[in-house]
Amino acid sequence: MTTETVPTRGLWLKQAGDSVPGQRDLHGGIVAAIVAAVAELKGEPAADRLRGEGLEALHHVLGPLDLGPVRDRVLEGLRNRMLAFAVEVGRTVLGWDGEFYVDDYLILRLNIPYEVARKADPSGENPGIGRISPWMRETAAARRVKDPLYDPKGYHKGHPPAAWAHGPHLDSWAGHSRDGLNIWWAMCDVPAEASMVLYPELADRTLPCDRRTLYLGQDYPLPAPTFVPLAPGEMLVFDPEILHGTHLNVTDRTRVAVSMRLNASKPTFDPDCFYAREFWRTASDIEAQRFDWVLHLKREEHLGAPAPAPVEARPYPGTPAVVPATVADGTARVARAAPLADGERFVAALPDRRLIVARTGDRLSAVDAACPHYGVDLAFGGQVADKIYCPACAVAFDLHDGTSRSESLSLARYRTWEEGGAILIDLS
Fold first, then answer.
1. 16: which of 57, 122, 236, 259 is 20 to 30 A away, CA to CA?
2. Does this model's pTM top 0.70?
């Protein structure tokens, strides 16, 4: 019987680069394997550049179509060591002293900078794709189901897969097991602007899943994201039923991370999802080095209870009111009973668009409410000081000038002033 020494529900904790036996050695082995794969594909000069500048320079030596072949070489060469390390995390970090389960699906995340990725070949691969053991892939392909509602390309608005970012979600919505724990392990420096983001404030809420995207419904109000930057070798162990996503990589460096998944008990799946990650290993098999043993846990035989029906969206503190505006002669007018206070904002609803109007300090500003990445409404994102965060890609936009860390992602801004009990916005 499994002993859960560390509570798993709502858990998220960072682990140093040497907190698990073998962690430092395996981290070095994965980095070396990536460099070796680059040498094989692109030659020694490319590998030498990585040795000198680090994995953050991967986008300088690889094209987006090379990411899949590198992933294959690394995961297949180190699969057994990575599985054994996942068991070690369960034993030493979580204190599980009985049997538990390890997902056979391993991910090497190679996220190149958005400014490079947005120009990539559209036939490339999603950087979040992982791999199961080679001899199980034919079985997995035969089990694959196409759902008529699921439309990831529509959500990503024509961006090539290399430029995709995970919107906020619970893993069980996308076919992963319930009651699991994820390992998210940085192979190189992961700054806040390329990190995983969490929304732990919503852990007690029943959240709506958009079945077209398997992400959070886009009209659900969010707080500002909690960023999880990691140094090379550090890892995040977290409950993937905390709402989470990935920050669009708006840095000038490639982000490299490894993902693995553990389950304290036999996995079950959300019956509302058409798909499931069905291939698992037991900790005892891995410890006995029975690496050719994989369990096929068929979705229809391992369904959990249906998820509770989502409750009505409750406005998160700071979610702005929507106020209709009148437009005449190129100027929008919003009537106000009182001047806009410092830190206050609202959405001005125009006939053809929505604007966010905010005051920070003595500055009044108005910017477009649609994020230029996926067109998601920023009104549902959190705000900290003069920054508003996209509720989908977590990019921060400056309310004063509309800029972000990405030179190609900025908001139109408008001259704004208060006059005669109203706020006026120059639309020209």
1. 57
2. yes
